[in-house]
Amino acid sequence: MVRGAARCESRSRHTRLWAGQRARLRCSRVSGRAGFAHSTMRKLNTAEDGDRSELLRRLAAARATIPHLPGKRVRRSPLSETRIRRVTAPLVTALNQCRALPVNPAAGIGGKARRTRPPAWTEPREQRWRQTGKRPAPVMVWTAAQTGAFLDSAEGDRLYPAYHLAAYWGLRRSELAGLEWADVDLDARRLHVRGSKTEDSDRIITIDTDTAGVLRAWRKA
Hints:
The chain is mainly alpha-helical. The chain has helices at 2-43, 54-64, 81-97, 123-132, 144-153, 160-169, 173-178, 209-220, and strands spanning 65-66, 69-73, 184-185, 190-193, 203-206. The chain folds into two domains: 2-97, no CATH class; 123-220, no CATH class. It is built from eight helices and five strands.
């Protein structure tokens, strides 16, 4: 009886160990797939020749068009590391907070992406770009001359005043879209910018005479 009880206990212990190992194996496979998904998202729209993985094809197809607007493309630019982390953040947070899993499938892929300041265009960088066609970084800060050239080319555009405000006073896209005439005092040359990110971004700025003239002409149009 003692030997039988010992064998049963040993068998039960081995069964628990086997079940736990199998659960860890499943979680490690999920973790590997999560890491593979991240690496595939990084290659989206920048895939090397010969890369025809099924996941990459499906991601590209899902990102290609807007379902309710046939023929309209969402965006063509590569996904940045910050955007990848932002998109997967809810899932990573949920997995990190889950206590039912013996192994966290999101381990090693969580955390915030490090924000880096985009580099500015310089004469050597511009020369190199014109020679090779390769941009130094996905996002570049324009020089004063480049900004002026853009504003000159967009002067006849309907949204030129918005471009002017963004270039001269650094308003974000959401701030430009949320700006109302009730928040604009052209006589005092004051704008109440209602920021959407923090309380500090909600501010009042005093614009220059030229900008006030651009906005006044836009309002009369």
